[in-house]
Automatic annotation (TrEMBL):
Region (Disordered): 18-56, 145-167
InterPro entries: DciA-like
Name the UniProt record assigns to this protein: DUF721 domain-containing protein
Native species: Geodermatophilus sabuli
Coiled coil: none
Taxonomic superkingdom: Bacteria
Pfam families, alphabetized: DciA
Compositional bias of kind Low complexity: 18-29
Length: 167
């Protein structure tokens, strides 16, 4: 038997497979270093850039200005920061109800407090203008407590009231 005719040994088969794998690996292009996520970063220098993490307040401010929500946030600030705007003593005895067309409706807990707030109205309006800015609140309408009403909605019909349906 010649060496070509003899049966292949397991070590010869393994050696041939290893040689074929090395040849296939050498013919493939070398893998490059992959980026895990995101675009290629350009360094901005010592100060934080736009793609760096930002404080939440700055992001909210940029969103409000981009969406043009400044007027809505000022209106919300009147209701949300009422105690800080008018002071805790006044805020303990009155609450803002509605704000429409520049008129803020404030409900006082008693008629005495309603009278006091009417006298303080120019001072309260000055504070609101200074701290909120703009012409969000132009008039202040103060009302005292009211008795319960059977009326529902802005319009009503004169009549005998709730007894009207009984008979």
């Amino acid at each position: 038997m010649t060496p070509d005719e003899r049966p292949a040994r397991p070590s010869d088969i393994a050696r041939a497979a290893l040689e074929a794998a090395r040849a296939a690996s050498a013919s493939r292009p070398r893998p490059t270093r992959r980026r895990i996520a995101g675009p290629r970063r350009n360094w901005t220098g010592p100060r934080p850039g736009e793609d760096d993490p930002q404080p939440l307040g700055r992001l909210v401010d940029s969103l409000v200005s981009a969406q043009d929500w400044t007027e809505h946030t000022r209106v919300g600030a009147v209701f949300g920061r009422w105690s800080a705007l008018v002071g805790p003593d006044i805020a303990a005895h009155c609450t803002p109800q509605t704000l429409s067309e520049g008129e803020l409706l404030v409900v006082a807990e008693s008629t005495a407090w309603a009278t006091q707030l009417r006298l303080l109205a120019p001072t309260i309006l000055g504070r609101l203008r200074a701290q909120i800015g703009g012409d969000v609140v132009t008039r202040l309408r103060v009302v005292g407590p009211t008795a319960p009403s059977w009326k529902k909605g802005p319009r009503s019909v004169r009549g005998r009231g709730p007894r009207d349906t009984y008979g």
